[in-house]
Amino acid sequence: MGWWERLSYLLGIKLSPDKQAFARRYLDDAGWFLFSQMSMLDQRHTLRAARYIVRKAAFQRGVVNLNNLVQAALLHDAGKIKGEILWVYRLPVRLVRDLFPRRQKRWAARDKSRSFRYALYVDLVHATRGAYMAKSLGLPATVVSLIKRHHDPQSRTYEPELSLLQEANRKN
Ligand SMILES: [Fe+2]
Ligand SMILES: [Fe+2]
Fold first, then answer.
1. What does the alpha-carbon distance between residue 164 and residue 151 come to, in Å, rounded to a whole number?
2. Torsion angle (degrees, nearest 10) of CA 164, 120, 105, 44
3. Proximal ligand: closest to the CA of 49
4. CA of 160 to the centre of ligand 1 (A)
5. Residue 155: inside a domain, yes or no?
6. How far is the centre of ligand 1, averaged over its atoms, from the C-alpha of 79 (Å)?
7. Residue 44 belongs to a domain
8. What distance in angstroms lies between residue 54's CA and the mean position of ligand 2's atoms?
């Protein structure tokens, strides 16, 4: 391995071969394409979430299809396309989403020239958009549905897969 490659792994510019292999094990070509079009920050976040699920699933009752759940974890933020949310906006966007959800809807704008408002817009629609992208590429319906609902409030009927995905998303 050359020094540049080693440095890219260390700086997080590129995914290390073992991380790539982990994602590849669960994703087909379409899934890999969706995964690769996320920013490196999101790829690393979704990988952590997926690994968290693999560790936890053994102790969680009712997880029927681990493979689909891991795919959903790897792709849940696929609706945030690389370059759309500047890294400096990540924390502010998250704060607005968590603290002022109604204002996020008001401030969000589909206008790329207003980068912060556009970042709020992308954040607002990323679950629906990611699900649409996954559906268009033929991913399983369960994966599509989990992606779509990964920020939804917990419903009254407990769904072990969705609840584990949301926990993995929060903690990673
Ligand atoms: Fe998300
Ligand atoms: Fe996420």
1. 12
2. 0
3. 2
4. 18
5. yes
6. 8
7. yes
8. 16
